[in-house]
Design a protein that fits this description.
Length: 266
Amino acid sequence: MFTHWPIYFKDRLYIGNLEAPVAICTLWTPKERIAQGLKKDSFCVAGQLYSGRGLNFIVRNLLAKPSIQYLVVCGKSLTDSDQLILDFFESGKGRDDYIDEEIPSSTLGNLRDYIKVIDLVGDTNPDVVRDVISGCDSKDYIREPQTFPEPKYSQSGNFPTDSSVFEIRGNYIGEVWLFALKHILKFGIPGERIGGYAVQSIHNLAAVIQKEDSRSPKVYPFFNFELADIENYIKNFFNPVLGEHSYSYGGRLQKYKGVNQIKVMK
C-alpha cells in the first residue's frame, strides 16, 4: 500500500482511519461539518466535490486504495456535482468528459463494480451518516493498488514578462475567457504542486466585458454548462444566507461585519 496516500489533495481531505473501508464525499457541504460528528476510526477519508474535474481525482485516489469498498455521497450541492458522481458509478457517464484517458475504461468498470455507493445526497446530519457506515463491514479484497500516468501537455514553457497589469477586452465573457486562458498559458508562472497537480497562475489580470447582457449571457458551445446552470449559480452567489455549504460569497458580501458591501457599491 502507498504510504503517501491520499495521492491527490491530501492537504484538503479530512483523514480518519486509513484502514477503514468507507470514503465520504460531502459535495459542497464542508467536510468537517459531517466528519467531526463521526468516530474518526469509522471512516477512511472525507472530502468535497465541486465539479466534474474533481471526480477524476476521487477515482484516482480510490484506485490507489483498494481497502476502500464503500463511498458515501452526502451533503448538498450547488451544481450538478451530486448527479455527476452518482451517474458515473451507476453507468459510467462522464468518463470521456472528466476522467483522464490514461485510465483504461476496463479499469474504471472494475472500480464501479467494486465500490458500493451509498446515496445520502441532501443529508447533512452526521448521525444519519454514522448509522449508515456502522453497517459497512470490511471484506477481503485482492485488488491491487493502481496508479496511472498524468496527462501530457504539449506546452514547453512560458514567456518571461514583467509583473504588470494584463488587460483583456472583449464583447462577451466566453471569448474573454479564452483570451485569459491564452495569457495564463503564455505568461503564467508555474507553481508548486497543489493537491497532486501543477498549477500555473498570472497576477493582475483585468477582464473588460463590453457588450454582454448580464441578464441573458451568451452561452458558447465549448461551455460544459447551460444557461440554467448560470442562473442557478447567480442565485446562489447572491444569496445573503450563510448556509450549510462552503460557498458563502453572497453572505460575506452582504453581511460582512454588518455591512452590505453590494449596497455600498451602488
